[in-house]
Amino acid sequence: MKRSCIPAAVAMIALGVPARVPAQGRVDTTAGHFSPFTQNDVHFMSGMIYHHAQAVMMAGWAPTHDAGASLRALCERIVVGQTDEINLMQRWLRDRHQTVPDPKAAQTMMPGMPGMGGMDSSMIMPGMLTAEQLAALDKARGPDFDRLFLQFMIQHHRGAITMVNQLFGTGSGEEEIVFKFASDVYADQTTEIDRMQRMLGAMLFGARGQ
């Protein structure tokens, strides 16, 4: 059963338009008895591992950066949820004999990490933080950390939604697991953006009222 809250590219099913369209560049998977998938599917799953790895790293800073209780709770959900999704994506790639990115290695490659040369530009996905943004977030503490985290994670989540729209826009994302995962990312991160915008609004409004 597909999620009802899915990208515009597939939400047209509500209008009677088929949710899936023919995709080019299919990969032969008969030997592994898997549903057909495309190189765009592989690129999406690989890229989203890097994307999630940065989000997990950012959220993991909450306890050491004096984040408030509500933000810590949000960060805990992000760490648990996106770590589970990284495991799913790695398993999907491994089962199909594709290169499997290591999220820990991906974190050490993040732009701006001390002692690292920076991440290859081809691996920087939409919405990912720049070296300067990561440095600013890592430097912040308390309410300043909360505010920057919300601003940056909203940016980060919007990038993930862009990746989903790009996937479906190419006609890929037909494979069952990819379709469900991408649709869930769209729905879940849209919901989290709304939640973070409310948190940020309350924080800014409260500061102005003091």
Question: Can you walk through the features of this model?
Answer:
This protein is mostly helical. Helices cover 61% and strands 2% of the residues. It has seven helices and two strands; from the N terminus they run H-E-E-H-H-H-H-H-H. It has helices spanning 8-11, 39-60, 69-95, 103-108, 131-139, 143-169, 176-209; strands at residues 26-27, 37-38. The protein has a two-stranded antiparallel sheet with strand order 1-2. Helix 2 (39-60) runs antiparallel to helix 6, helix 5 packs antiparallel against helix 6 and helix 6 (143-169) packs antiparallel against helix 7 (176-209). The longest helix has 34 residues, at 176-209. The radius of gyration is 18 Å and the shape is elongated. It starts with 7 loop residues before the first helix and ends with a helix.
Discrete helix count: 7
| Rounded radius of gyration (Å) | 18 Å
Low-pLDDT segments, ≥5 res: 1-5, 7-25, 111-122
Main β-sheet, spatial strand arrangement:
1-2
Indicate the mean pLDDT. Answer: 82
Strand residues, percent = under 5%
Quickly give the structural class.
Answer: mainly alpha
Given the C-alpha coordinates, what overall shape results? Answer: elongated
Order of helices and strands: HEEHHHHHH
Taking the alpha carbons of the first and last residues, their distance comes to 48 Å
Largest sheet composition: 2 strands, antiparallel
Please give the share of residues in helix. Answer: 55-70%
What's the total count of β strands? 2
